[in-house]
Amino acid sequence: MYQSENYSTQYQIDTRLALNAYLVKVFGTMFAGLAITAIVAFYFAASNLVYTLGNAVFVIMIAQLVLVLALTASINKLSYRVALGLFMLYSLLNGITMAFIFVVYDIGTIGTAFTVTALTFGIMAVYGSLTKSDLTAFGSLARMLLIGGLIVMLINMFMGSPAIDYFISVVLLFVFVGLVAYDTQKLKGFFYATQNDIPTQQKVGVIGALSLYLDFINIFLRLLRIFGRSKR
Question: Where are the domains of the chain?
Answer without folding.
Answer: 2-227
